[in-house]
Amino acid sequence: MSATIIDGKAFAARVREKVAQHVTRLKEEHGVTPGLAVVLVGEDPASQVYVRSKGKQTVEVGMKSVEHKLDADTSEADLLALVDQLNDDPEIHGILVQLPLPDHIDEDLVINSISPAKDVDGFHISNVGLLSTGQKSMVPCTPLGCLMMLRDHHGSLSGKDAVVIGRSNIVGKPMAQLLLGDSCTVTIAHSRTKDIEEVVRRADIVVAAVGRPEMVPGDWIKPGATVIDVGINRIERDGKNKLVGDVDFGSASEVAGAITPVPGGVGPMTIACLLANTLTACARANGLPEPE
Ligand code: NDP
Fold it and tell me: Is pTM, for the whole model, over 0.95?
């Protein structure tokens, strides 16, 4: 194996440590405790795991954590009423409605009912617009975590050829905006992209956010490129359940210059960035300087 392994787990621990220090200072110097509310509708097992993990880490950095677990048949009106209540709650600085929502609820409507200032997922249409016009916004957590790891590894990203595979609103598109904001030349590949191998082979930076186990083999990767694997795919191999990314780690790590593993890469950074966003939202709400 030749690639440097980008250790998202260790990086995320450093981010959380820094957030915790800021939280302590906010409490001591300003009497303010950042608060994050997470709303879960239904019993999707993966969502339950994420929500539990978010709540635990929120408390560990010294923030207030509030969880609202609603039945799968909760009406859209009741969910919107809860979001309204959280929008008005001065002790809550961040609101996250765990996706996906049940089919009878309009996801866009709910996301856009969250106050943009408390939208720590960065999915509200105002934050999407602010990000795409290069203005101060709430940045979606997963792409933000990827950008932090890339900046940490490379220093400047200016002029690099970046390919983002996947064009979802939660990962692919905001990732492309962030890379553009850092002056990369960005290509977004998706299910209709022709000659995707050739497109990926040109990239100095590859971000894979597809949801297809090990779709990107090593021979698609330009030697020395940096590979960020967002995918989280559960597969069964040799009779065991395993988590794998969208990149074939074995072959890609022979060619890449640096690569994130799955698990232990992008995943831990996502929650760390959620906590960082909540801290930022709290500082902004109180007219305080934004923590670095
Ligand atoms: P979506 O399903 O919303 O989007 C997947 C994207 O991949 C789409 O744009 C789709 O293209 C594209 N795609 C599908 N098949 C191909 C293909 N054969 N070739 C090229 N592109 C293809 O997924 P998400 O963006 O929500 O998530 C992507 C992955 O990242 C998942 O594995 C998910 O679990 C993971 N994830 C991880 C997070 C973390 O914290 N680490 C957080 C969020 C997601 P098209 O638009 O044309 O259909």
Answer: yes
